[in-house]
Amino acid sequence: MFGPALMPGWHGTVWADQATHEVHEPSAQHESHAGTLAQPEPAAMDHSAHQAAQEQDHGASHEGHGAHATGPVDETTTIVRGGVTREEEKTYSLFMHRSCGTIVALLGLLVLADRLTQRRHGALRKGMGAIWLLMGIHIFLNADPTDWPLAATFMESYNRPGSSEWLQHKVLCLIPVAIGLYTMFVARRERPNPWSGYALAAVLAFGGIALLYHEHEHSPGMDMGLIVRQHNLMAFTSIFIAAGWLADTLDRLAWKPKFVMVPVGLILLGLELIIYTE
What we know:
The chain is mainly alpha-helical. The protein contains ten helices and no strands. The protein has a domain at 86-274: Serine Threonine Protein Phosphatase 5, Tetratricopeptide repeat (Alpha Horseshoe).
């Protein structure tokens, strides 16, 4: 008898427990669902941190390239190519530009004197040729004092960062050598072969075009925009000299200003080198 009477009570207890469990179970599911919805917030934080890290790496890669102008640096402690300080590199670079500029301006005056005297003095032409040759040797040996042939092997200099500038110096030093040989052995003839004049004009034009692509090593603290503008001016002046040399070779071109194009161009190029700065 007590069994049937207890059964409804037992079932009622079970139902009550189930109901209580069902009441609590949606609450747990709701909390789980809320936790799931809350997960994107840390993800957004992670994405923001990842983006910031990417921007930092991107900025660091640009600083590593050292392209164009950089901010002010302590030139006395900043080490550049060859293990020298930026101050030493800058001082030596200015010396090379200004010494070459002085030589080129002097040669312009000598060329003008040679033309004003109607090329009567062979010793003057030989002297100019010797100066051109010495200038080429000066650039070959001294343009890069921490590199081959003075202070390193050829392959060591070639494998260093910024070796393109070093190679350009070695190629461009051949231009004054070519002018010196032409002045000493070809220009002294009564009627030189015009093709030799055309060839030298082409060499001079090549030098001018090369200056458009001649870049100094991107050392910290260098204003590359200023350096490029100065090299562009030198390049156009060199092309002007090449045009004057070509005009001299063309006997049929009866244009009086061609008489002064080469010496005036050399004097201008010399002054541009003298006032060069970094």
